[in-house]
Amino acid sequence: MREKKFLKRSGYFLAFNGPTLFTFTCVLILPFVYGVYLTFTDWNAISDTYSFVGFQNYATVFTDKEFLRQFLITFKYVILSALLCNLLAFTLAYFLTSGMRCQNFLRGGFFIPNLIGGIILGYIWKFIFANVLTQVGKAFDIAWLKTSFLTNPDRAVWALIIVTVWQYAGYLMMIYIAGFVGIPKDVQEAADIDGAHGLKKLWRVTIPMMIPSFNICMFITLSRGFMAYDLNLSLTNGGPYGSTRLAAMHVYQKAFQSKQYGIGQAEAIVLFIVVAILSVTQLLINKRREVEI
After folding, report:
1. Pick the residue with more confidence: 199 or 111?
2. Parent domain of 151
3. CA 279 – CA 277 distance, rounded (Å)
4. Which of 37, 38, 195, 255 lies at a C-alpha separation of 20 to 30 Å from 101?
5. Helix axes 156-181, 103-111, angle to 10 degrees
6. Structurally, how many domains does the chain consist of?
7. 21 in any annotated domain
8. Confidence of residue 193 (pLDDT cuts 50, 70, 90)
9. Quick check: is 129 in a domain?
10. Is residue 15, in this structure, part of any structural domain at all?
11. Angle ∠(176,231,178) on CA atoms, nearest 5
12. For the domain that residue 125 is a member of, what is the CATH number?
């Protein structure tokens, strides 16, 4: 009897989940495992033959000054964009759940930038930085706007950050709105009765109950930030003078343009491990702060 139930359940599982598992394995698991294997070889992405080199590629990664430099630039970009994205998204969600007029219309308006692809978005903002903002600077005699952000090594990274915040803030805002809506009304009413209003209520009551939303949004911004490539390519193409070449672009150039696929794949694995560690760490830290409703 138990065997029949087990076979029946296994049949249902394979019928409904089998195609998904098969696709997931073929598209993600097998390429990832094969990619890890290639990090131990000297394959150049073209030749039919390659040799096993052990951990030599990983040793090269940690001695590659250019990769370490690009990684530090990426780390700066990710931290600043993640903080600003979440701060702006949380602020927008706070005001757009307060019952203000046209809040549904404004929600849709702020969400629209997320629907634009990174390549197209990069070219749009490239035109804005190079032509629109410079003309505004000249018209109103604003010195720092007279020259494009994209031509200054110190300000080009900020161009990437500005566009990233503009693109993702609306998407994260929707997650925060769901968090605000999910806070029980009786808890908010109890806080009002106890005299918690304004910033005190926000800090003591609202934010602790929004920790799950913070977890999701921080994970999204960290993972997408480290893997950013399309916006980096279309907006700055790594310039000027390599000041905005992020890690993902460096990995691509190493693997496919320099024909050092083993080293490029090793850099990608190192980047993946860093993203996983940071994401899991922030998740564990925030989990301790969650409040049960």
Report:
1. 111
2. 57-292
3. 6
4. 195
5. 140
6. 1
7. no
8. confident
9. yes
10. no
11. 10
12. 1.10.3720.10
